[in-house]
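Deliverable D2.4 — example input (structure tokens):
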């Protein structure tokens, strides 16, 4: 009888420990990698805290996992250090997980990075919101807004880039060069970008059926 009682207590204790461990793991996961669900009736941009991190240096690459396939990107950390550092910190925090390509203009650009596009939040705000950290305009005369290159979106203020970025679908050098930071180049998967561009859109260049950037992972090799 004592052995059975002792064994029963051990089973109960083991079960409690397991429950606690699962609960702690879920809490850590949900608070570090899953941004809060946004209300669908937002009327203004909420504040999205930008994670900290050391400066991005050396060879940097990003894998953009999208609903249309993988897009692999080389990042220009030397030419645009502040922009790349901000982008890497956001990606590593999970900021870009499950965001909509909210602006699609066939033959021009596809754009994402607005956190309000997550979870079906108010479409009227898409393209207006970003992270809290701004980055300055970083122009390198050797980099251009050519097909497959990434640029940092911004407002009318040249130094207002935050989290939104675009991929050029054409050689937009005359209209965009010198005005927007070029910080990356697609080295594989440009077909996925063009597939996203074929998504039907409404009058505001928003996809009628949301097409997602599911995640961005950073590495030091392609």
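Example output (designed residues):
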């Amino acid at each position: 009888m004592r052995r059975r009682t002792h064994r029963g207590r051990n089973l109960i204790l083991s079960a409690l420990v397991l429950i606690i461990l699962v609960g702690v793991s879920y809490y850590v996961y949900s608070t570090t990698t899953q941004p809060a669900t946004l209300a669908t009736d937002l009327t203004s941009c909420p504040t999205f805290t930008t994670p900290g991190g050391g400066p991005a240096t050396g060879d940097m690459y990003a894998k953009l996992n999208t609903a249309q396939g993988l897009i692999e990107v080389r990042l220009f950390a030397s030419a645009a250090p502040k922009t790349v550092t901000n982008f890497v910190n956001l990606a590593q925090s999970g900021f870009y997980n499950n965001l909509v390509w909210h602006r699609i203009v066939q033959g021009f650009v596809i754009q994402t990075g607005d956190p309000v596009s997550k979870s079906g939040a108010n479409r009227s705000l898409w393209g207006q919101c970003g992270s809290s950290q701004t980055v300055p305009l970083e122009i390198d005369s050797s980099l251009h807004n050519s097909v497959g290159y990434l640029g940092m979106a911004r407002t009318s203020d040249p130094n207002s880039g935050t989290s939104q970025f675009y991929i050029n679908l054409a050689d937009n050098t005359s209209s965009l060069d010198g005005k927007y930071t070029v910080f990356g180049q697609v080295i594989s998967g440009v077909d996925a970008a063009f597939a996203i561009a074929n998504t039907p859109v409404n009058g505001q260049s928003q996809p009628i059926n949301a097409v997602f950037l599911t995640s961005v992972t950073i590495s030091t090799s392609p």
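The radius of gyration is 21 Å.
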